[in-house]
């Protein structure tokens, strides 16, 4: 009996030792605009940036739109896919800690969304998942105009940047906190 308890204890220690994460992950603290301009340098890097949350997804609260000082957009998603963001972040300055990812919306995807007359999410330019809102826009007759406006905006950005894709910069957030303004 004592041998079984000792063996279970030792196995428990062994398994716990295998799941310890490296606490020395280097975090790069930088202005959010530097992240946007130098995305190639920071993709897959843990960063800390600040900005204002200008939109929180109304469907499930799992996406936020962080606006940088220059007006660029960074998509913020929680590391826990079951979690939602606190509505208190909306219209507030926040500090986000997480891993950076870049995805790209290629010309062929934009062509496909245009054919489908998709209304795009203004956080990440993917088709909007808010089916009730989309249905209201379709019923009011505004959907096609709204869809075309979004598509035209993406094509204009591609023309201005000289790229055949739209970059979508995402931070998979481990931590999001409100930034309290310093008192003077």
Structure, explained:
The structure is a single chain. With 184 residues, the protein is α/β, with parallel strands linked by helices. The chain has one domain (26-178): OB fold (Dihydrolipoamide Acetyltransferase, E2P) (Beta Barrel), CATH 2.40.50. Helix content is 36%, strand content 28%. It has helices spanning 2-18, 32-37, 39-42, 107-116, 131-140, 143-161; strands spanning 28-29, 46-56, 64-67, 73-78, 93-106, 165-178. It has a 5-stranded mixed beta barrel with strand order 2-3-4-6-5. Strand 3 and strand 4 form a beta hairpin. Helix 4 packs antiparallel against helix 6. The radius of gyration is 21 Å and the shape is globular. It starts with a helix and ends in a 6-residue tail after the last strand. It comes from Williamwhitmania taraxaci. Residues 1-21 form the signal peptide. This is Lipoprotein. Keywords: Signal.
Bulk shape: globular
Distance between the termini: 67 Å
Overall number of strands: 6
Strand order of the largest sheet: 2-3-4-6-5
Order of helices and strands: HEHHEEEEHHHE
Classified by CATH, the class is Mainly Beta
Question: What would CATH call the architecture?
Answer: Beta Barrel
Give the percentage of residues in beta strands: 25-35%
- Give the tally of structural domains: 1
The description of the largest β-sheet is: 5 strands, mixed, barrel
Q: Which structural class do the helices and strands define?
A: alpha/beta
Question: Over all CA atoms, what is the radius of gyration?
Answer: 21 Å
Fold-level CATH name? OB fold (Dihydrolipoamide Acetyltransferase, E2P)
Number of helices: 6
Low-pLDDT segments, ≥5 res: 1-22
Helix content: 25-40%
CATH superfamily descriptor: Nucleic acid-binding proteins
The average pLDDT value, as a whole number, equals 87
Keywords: Signal
Protein name: Lipoprotein
